[in-house]
Request: fold
Amino acid sequence: MEKYICITCGTQYPASSHPPEECVICEEERQYVPPAGQQWTTLEKMQQSGTYSNHFVEEQKGLKSVTTSPEFGIGQTVYIVEEQGFRLLWDCMVYIDDQTITLLNEEGGLDAIALSHPHYYTTQVEWAEAFNCPIYIHEDDQEWVQQSSDRIIYWSGESLELSEGLTLYRLGGHFDGGSVLHWVKSDGEAVLLTGDIIQVAADRQWVSFMYSYPNMIPLPAETVRNIALKLKPLKFSELYNAFHREVSGQADIAVQRSAERYAAALEGRLF
Ligand SMILES: [Zn+2]
Ligand SMILES: [Zn+2]
Reply:
């Protein structure tokens, strides 16, 4: 019995004797099955290959990014946010090995894992077991969870404070339960971590919002206005997405401005 992992998106499936018939995430219209077809691996195979390693970069005090090299699956960057001694893994990545566990344990382990949306539901149960911590997932995306575990806490409503200075906000859009992390530092400055619920544009003064990024399906203007409305009360100077892009300085204003431009483009008022 193996816990098969989809090579395209990184979703890990419950133990089975054969790979799943299909990957429900890849088959869904927000993702895709590559032209060569569906392929599978396992975490053990990845570890034994000696090909992969995780890399940690201190982005700023209290914030480390983690990426796998070479890139695997969707290739997301995840973050470890530390505020007042509470250590949160924001979003999840497929690859985890003994070196990763040892390194993180030397820094104080993990107190919780929180996920923005189903595209980063991967080996979170392996991570949670390695660090003996809970996983927070919005209940509106429960149907996309493949690996059930009593470590998963399905939260509901529009926000959840995980610890002082670390609060999840459900914005919806890309997925119904799509959530972001608002991190208010002890010096009063704040950062928004968005996965791809909000995407940083090539021009780093702007962000965007999509139903599907790979298949280029936009969101309705009204949905994007609602996302902007939910964020309006929040102050944050910086924003980090899941692909190592950052808006530096007045990121809260950049989100509001970008939502207005997006709605104007969809409604034929921009050009
Ligand atoms: Zn997949
Ligand atoms: Zn996504």
